[in-house]
Design goal:
Elements (H helix, E strand, L loop, with lengths): L1 H8 L22 H7 L3 E6 L1 H6 L1 H10 L2 E4 L5 H4 L9 H12 L3 E4 L3 E2 L5 H8 L5 H14 L3 E8 L15 H6 L3 H12 L4 E6 L7 H19 L6 E4 L2 E3 L7 H13 L3 E10 L7 H19 L5 E6 L13 H6 L26 H10 L9
Parallel strand pairs: 1-2, 1-10, 2-3, 3-5, 4-5, 5-6, 6-7, 7-9, 8-9, 9-10
């Protein structure tokens, strides 16, 4: 996960090469957002305004498939305020304007994230700057978009097992303000967004391994404490970066976790769904099938729980994904691609690099369009 976060903080991966095939081959229905809407849910995807502006076929796909847009990097603190008193709202303003003009909804991603703090702010916080610095930043960003943003990810990835007895991630915010910073940030955001849904967003909640068992446990402990203290928390964002290298998702663990979150009076949004592949030497149809099957397994349990409002994927097309075939992936297959070929893109999003629907697309379509009875797993 660190390679992804480092890349985003450094302004994101470079955009992919020029288009190779014709535009989106339409599925035989009205799109993912329309299917989700039939069951009272929503579907959306992370987006960058510069990609939408430059690629008409990609723009058409987003407009067709998504009712929600999420800024991939345009709302990160180190992007919006790279220098003290030097705001750079152009990209976020462009995405907000584009979404609003087309009656698309927006989620604010993200206010406090330990990997997106500008260097100047980190220095000031470490030198003893008070909460006024956070209030100033929230006050500059949240009211600017007003009612156009209905959900705010106030704190992103606050949990990291293995460091503290409470499971909180070491960060400049924790150092500066103590463990109360999470609740304090929620309260601060509420003063500027009285009607919005306020969220905590977290990853690593899907598999039955020790790290993710601990992450679920510590996150529930944090949520319980915030609710007990009366913090204005409405929604938990479950990122859902699925990873075929870890095996299959744990239906029982996910279901139990969702029930515990619901029992705290919180709703859930799947916020960053995508899939990291494992078997890059398989054929493209087989790779797509493995991804689609895993997404179907995940959504089958998640969308059978109470209070799941919708799903957003972290990108819409493999053409623009932070998930890449890495040097470590190549090393796992030392005898492959000796003829100069390559595995191509990681195939982990609803549309392939030519914007054609994949098995993941149809897994999403079927799951979002189904009204399912509440399932105890």
């Amino acid at each position: 996960m660190l390679s992804r976060r480092d890349a985003i903080v450094a302004a994101g991966a470079a955009t992919a090469a020029s288009l190779l095939r014709p535009p989106l081959a339409l599925a035989a229905d009205a799109g993912l957002a329309a299917n989700a809407g039939r069951t009272g849910r929503f579907f959306g995807a992370a987006a960058r305004i510069e990609q939408l502006a430059a690629e008409p076929d990609l723009r058409a796909a987003y407009l067709r498939e998504c009712s929600w847009f999420v800024p991939e990097i345009a709302m990160l603190w180190n992007v919006i305020e790279p220098a003290e008193d030097g705001f750079a709202f152009e990209a976020m303003d462009g995405l907000a304007r584009y979404a609003s003009d087309r009656e698309k909804k927006l989620r604010g991603h993200t206010l406090l994230w330990h990997l997106a703090v500008p260097d100047w702010a980190t220095q000031q916080l470490r030198a003893g700057a008070g909460w006024d610095l956070i209030d100033r930043y929230f006050g500059a960003v949240i009211p600017r978009y007003g009612e156009r943003i209905e959900q705010w990810e106030v704190v992103n990835e606050p949990i990291e097992p293995g460091y503290r007895s409470d499971g909180l991630r070491p960060s400049v915010f924790l150092d500066a303000f103590g463990p109360e910073y999470v609740g304090r940030a929620l309260a601060q955001a509420r003063t500027y967004a009285p009607a919005a849904h306020l969220m905590i967003n977290e990853y690593g909640l899907e598999y039955d391994n020790q790290d993710e068992r601990d992450r679920r446990r510590f996150l529930l402990k944090l949520l319980e404490g915030l609710r007990s203290d009366g913090a204005p928390l409405d929604v938990l964002g479950m990122q859902a970066h699925l990873d075929l290298r870890k095996g299959h998702v744990s239906a029982s663990a996910i279901a139990a976790f969702c029930r515990a979150v619901n029992d705290l009076g919180l709703t859930i949004v799947v916020t960053e769904l995508d899939v990291k592949e494992s078997d890059y030497v398989a054929t493209a149809p087989e790779r797509d099938r493995l991804v689609g099957d895993e997404v179907r397994r995940y959504l089958d349990v998640v969308l059978s729980q109470r209070g799941v409002l919708g799903v957003t994927t972290w990108g819409l097309s493999d053409r623009h994904s932070w998930l890449e075939v890495t040097a470590d992936d190549y090393a796992r297959f030392p005898s492959a691609w000796k003829d100069g070929t390559s595995p191509g893109f990681n195939r982990g999003l609803p549309l392939d690099s030519s914007l054609r629907p994949t098995p993941m697309y149809f897994a999403l379509r079927d799951a979002l369009g189904s009204v399912r009875p509440y399932k105890r797993v």
